[in-house]
Amino acid sequence: MNATALAGASNAAVYASMFTLTIAMVAFAISFASGRRRSGLTQSQVPVVAAVGSTAVLTKPALDAPTEDDAGRKSANIGMSFTWLGFVLLLVGVVLRGVWAGRVPWGNMYEFSISSAVGILGAFLIVSLRRDVRWLGLFIVIPTLLTLGLAVTVLYTEGAQLVPALKSYWLIIHVAAAIICAGAFTLAAATAGLSLVQAHAERRGKVAMAKVPPAEKLRTLTYRILAFAFPLWTFAVVAGAIWAENAWGRYWGWDPKETWAFITWVIYAAYLHARSTVGWRGDRASWVAIAGWAAFIINYFGVNIFVNSLHSYSGV
Amino acid sequence: MINEAPILPPMGTLGFLRFAWRQLTSMKTALILLFLLAIASVPGSIFPQRGNNPLRVNEWIAESPTFGPIFDALGFFDVYSSPWFAAVYLLLFISLIGCVVPRTQVHWRAMLAPPPPVPRNLLRLPQSLEFEVGAPANVVLERADTYFTSRRWRVVRTETSIATEKGFLRETGNLLFHFSLILILVGVAVGGLFGWKGNVIVREGQGFANTLTQYDAWGGGRFTGAGRLSPFSFTLDEFNVDFERGVAQRGSPSLFEADVTYRRSPGAVAEKTRIEVNSPLAVDGAKVFLVGHGYAPHIVVRDANGVVSFDDSVVFLPQDGNFTSTGVVKVPDSDPQLGFQGIFVPTAPANNLRGPTSTFPGPDDPSVFLSAWRGDMGLDAGAPQSVYRLDTEAMEQIGIAALRPGQTWALPDGSGSIELTGFQRWASFQIAFDPGKEIALAGAILAMTGLMLSLFIRRRRVWLSVASISQGVTVVQLAGLARIESADLPGELQLIRAAVGDLPVSASEKAASDV
Question: What is the ipTM of this complex?
Answer without folding.
Answer: 0.79
